[in-house]
Specification:
With 225 residues, this protein is of the alpha/beta class. 34% of the residues lie in helices and 28% in strands. It contains seven helices and ten strands. The strands form two sheets. It has a six-stranded mixed sheet with strand order 6-7-8-3-9-10, sandwiched between helices. It has a four-stranded antiparallel sheet with strand order 2-1-4-5, with helices on one face. β9 and β10 form a beta hairpin.
Length: 225
């Protein structure tokens, strides 16, 4: 589904990524690990087409995403859900409205919104919280709203960039279990994290980065740095 082919990303003379190649198949759950500055977030930015590679190419289902123009980029991004360390919710909207807003922006009908939003909120265990505003939610609940907002677009892959960075251990495990459940539904997950306990708990594929290079790529891997 996703293919990085000899990808480098260079800022001035700094190689954020240096000749990186890997493939991620449909329905995979992959953790991308490494110390701060290893290149994890750069991979996320490139996949979101916030930036283009300095060298090499990135393919999504056979399409070179660097070749996409504005309309094509918008359609491509709708196939990818994102969850960040900062939940990036709209404080003026309640839980239901935050999730519905993603569908409204994509031009979905009121009927579709009315059907899909409650279903997704139930999946992420937020039924009954529809009318709560952001300031009334715990950190874990905010991240679940963020996950619901990503999931309601029915993405083929979810990019989770340090999603548990601001969470306590209990909410961290709740979030990871939700990501595993979503993966079981058929959505690929790419998790960028430096949390050793999470990676070792998941026992899924692990891509390890160091100074912009892949130093390890293992099925059922562990956090090894």
């Amino acid at each position: 589904m996703i293919s990085f082919n000899s990808v480098s990303k260079i800022y001035d003379k700094f190689h954020a990524l240096d000749d990186v190649s890997f493939r991620i198949e449909e329905k995979e759950f992959v953790s991308v690990v490494g110390r701060s500055g290893a290149g994890k977030s750069t991979i996320i930015k490139l996949l979101l087409k916030e930036e283009d590679p300095s060298k090499g190419s990135i393919f999504f289902k056979g399409v070179d995403i660097s070749s996409l123009k504005s309309g094509g980029t918008t359609n491509y991004r709708r196939r990818i859900g994102t969850v960040f360390q900062d939940s990036r919710l709209l404080p003026s909207k309640n839980v239901y409205e935050n999730v519905a807003f993603a569908m409204e922006a994509a031009g979905r009908s009121n009927a579709e919104i009315g059907e899909d939003v409650p279903q997704v909120l139930e999946i992420v265990d937020l039924k009954g919280k529809e009318k709560n505003f952001v300031q009334e939610l715990s950190g874990g609940e905010k991240q679940r709203v963020s996950l619901a907002r990503a999931l309601v677009q029915r993405p083929e892959v979810i990019l989770a960039d340090e999603p548990s960075g601001n969470l306590d251990p209990i909410h961290t495990w709740e979030l990871m279990k939700l990501l595993l459940r979503i993966n079981e539904f058929g959505t690929a997950i790419i998790l960028a994290t430096h949390d050793k306990d999470i990676v070792n708990f998941l026992k899924r594929r692990v891509i390890t980065l160091d100074k912009g290079k892949i130093i390890r790529d293992e099925q059922k891997g562990k956090y090894q740095l």
